[in-house]
Amino acid sequence: MSKRRLSLYGLSGQIGSIAVTLLGLLLLTFFIGRLMPADPVRAIVGEDATRETYEQVYHALGFDRPLWQQFVYYLGDVFTGNFGTSIRTGRPVIEDIISVMPATIELATFAILIGAGLGIPMGVYAAVKKDRWQDHLVRVLSLFGHSMPIFWTGMIALIVFYAHLGLVGGGGRMDQFYIGLVEERTGFLLIDSLLAGDMEVFRSAINHLILPAALLGYSSSAYITRMTRSFMLDQLGQEYVTTARVKGLSQRQTVWLHAFGNIRVQLVTIIALAYGSLLEGAVLIETVFAWPGFGQYLTSNLIIGDMNAVMTCVLIVGVIFIGLNLLSDILYRFFDPRTR
């Protein structure tokens, strides 16, 4: 069988796998909305509504239909982009999410840059210094970053670096004084402030971004460090590394040009997954730092039982993970000629 045909089979299998995963994700979000203890009808009509009003809304929302019919209607709404209206804001849920997502993307992007910037060198260094005190120190730091609750470290960091030392900004994306001074063009505050030429707003945004991004980045660096160390240990034990050393190549050339060069493809997948997992951490860190992003939006709506918003948020998180997995697989095929 030709390589082209094998590639087509692999692509069709991947598309089928994504379709099955999406269907499972839709089933999961649908049943989350039905099994949650919150009553979406009561959240709409209020506690003082009459029985007749309650039943009218219950019927209008289709909750009196069989579950399979409700799921079919749910699929139809999803594929037509109708995710319902948020009880809390009164706006279409998808519009709410589009408005808050740039804040989370901005935070997660800076966090993954910090996480990869710390995790990759630390992982390589730990592998080179295997079983020495440097290796143990890196592993302890990684364990600390992975095991400490992000909401706890967030509160401690706010107390120390904001309340006591005054080195960084507090909650929100910028100081209250600057809110509304910059036109929102992209939703990314750093970009919008640069486009407006307002460096005061830009500095304020950086000042507020650095602490939550650093905490999220440190948390993700723990995972990246461990995986980088594991990949590097596997490569450093290969015969070609010994051959490179025998030929007189320096330690830096052997480690970074040869051993590290062979794990770059694997790191693409690791970093993509770490970037997706930052959404999970962002739910807590955005709540602690009053960051008006996707995580805070999900938390706020979960508290009041706004199931349209909650179900859509869960669905979007799942789609993001699927998309990042697909992207990492594409990049893997692009960088590794053995998979073509």
TrEMBL record:
A cellular component term, taken from the record's GO annotations: plasma membrane
Which keywords describe this protein according to UniProt?
Cell membrane, Membrane, Transmembrane, Transmembrane helix, Transport
- List GO molecular-function terms, semicolon-separated: dipeptide transmembrane transporter activity
- List locations, semicolon-separated: Cell membrane
Which Pfam families does the annotation name? Answer: BPD_transp_1 (PF00528), BPD_transp_1_N (PF19300)
Superkingdom of origin organism: Bacteria
Q: ABC transmembrane type-1 domain spans which residues?
A: 101-328
Q: How does it sit in the membrane?
A: Multi-pass membrane protein
Query: What transmembrane ranges does the database entry give?
Result: 7-32, 107-128, 140-165, 267-289, 309-332
UniProt similarity note:
Belongs to the binding-protein-dependent transport system permease family.
Q: List the protein's name.
A: Dipeptide/oligopeptide/nickel ABC transporter, permease protein
Instruction: Give the originating organism.
Output: Agrobacterium genomosp. 2 str. CFBP 5494
